[in-house]
């Protein structure tokens, strides 16, 4: 329903007074006057469009759950060229607690079974899942609720990460049927910085910084190439950003 605005009777009084002062124009004045009972209807406000399932937009500084997207300045730098990094912790000024994340678009041409893991569960339940280049073993877990997810740290709503110390909890979820192997993604290592170091790299235009939706991360296929995701993220941000 549109918003109704009632014309005050004061307006009617003013129009009538003007008609008395200008009798020659009384017919025109009367025809343009409003009664106090008449209303003016305004159209309802437009409905806001729901956010798409996949979205990303630039932000000024990295935060937990945000993305670092390599700019063209890192072309030729083998480790980080055309990479997209999910920030797991934004870090502190303490040199031992700097920001770190995992490269989410650098799959290795190796499956878990090719690594001859000493852990039986890694070699069986996750045998045919690809490893991603990312140090210590880390993994992401997609989940819709927090029930029974002890030992994992939330990155953004619906997405958690764990380390080698959390493997027993991960195997427990799979054995109980609470989560299947397809909800996990394993990384060999992570990317880390000291706080000042990352700030300097961003100011030097080595990285775009962006917020993103959980579906952008969870929707990545196991073998998506580096360039595919890099181009998709920049496309969602409005195309290649150039200064």
From TrEMBL:
Q: Which parts of the sequence are annotated with region: Disordered?
A: 19-54
Q: Which domain of life is it from?
A: Eukaryota
What SUPFAM superfamilies has UniProt attached to this entry? VC0467-like
Instruction: Cite the InterPro entries for this sequence.
Output: AlgH-like
User: One Pfam annotation, family name?
Assistant: DUF179
Specify residue ranges for compositional bias: Low complexity: 25-37
Name of this chain's protein: Uncharacterized protein
Source organism per UniProt: Castilleja foliolosa
């Amino acid at each position: 329903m549109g918003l109704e605005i009632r014309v005050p009777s004061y307006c009617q009084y003013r129009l009538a007074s003007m008609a008395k002062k200008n009798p020659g124009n009384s017919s025109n004045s009367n025809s343009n006057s409003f009664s106090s009972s008449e209303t003016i209807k305004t159209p309802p406000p437009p409905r806001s469009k729901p956010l798409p399932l996949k979205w990303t937009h630039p932000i000024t500084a990295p935060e937990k759950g945000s993305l670092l997207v390599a700019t063209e300045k890192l072309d030729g730098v083998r480790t980080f060229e055309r990479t997209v990094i999910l920030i797991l912790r934004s870090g502190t000024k303490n040199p031992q607690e700097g920001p770190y994340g995992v490269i989410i678009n650098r799959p290795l041409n190796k499956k878990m079974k090719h690594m001859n893991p000493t852990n039986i569960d890694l070699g069986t339940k996750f045998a045919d899942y690809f490893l991603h280049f990312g140090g210590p073993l880390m993994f992401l877990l997609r989940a819709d609720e927090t029930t029974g997810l002890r030992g994992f740290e939330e990155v953004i709503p619906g997405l958690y990460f764990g380390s080698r110390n959390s493997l027993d909890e991960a195997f427990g979820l799979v054995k109980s049927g609470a989560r299947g192997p397809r909800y996990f993604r394993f990384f060999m290592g992570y990317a880390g910085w000291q706080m000042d170091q990352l700030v300097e790299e961003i100011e030097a235009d080595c990285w775009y910084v962006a917020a993103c939706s959980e579906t952008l991360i969870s929707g990545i296929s196991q073998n998506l190439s580096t360039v595919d995701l890099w181009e998709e993220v920049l496309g969602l941000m409005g195309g290649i950003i150039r200064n």
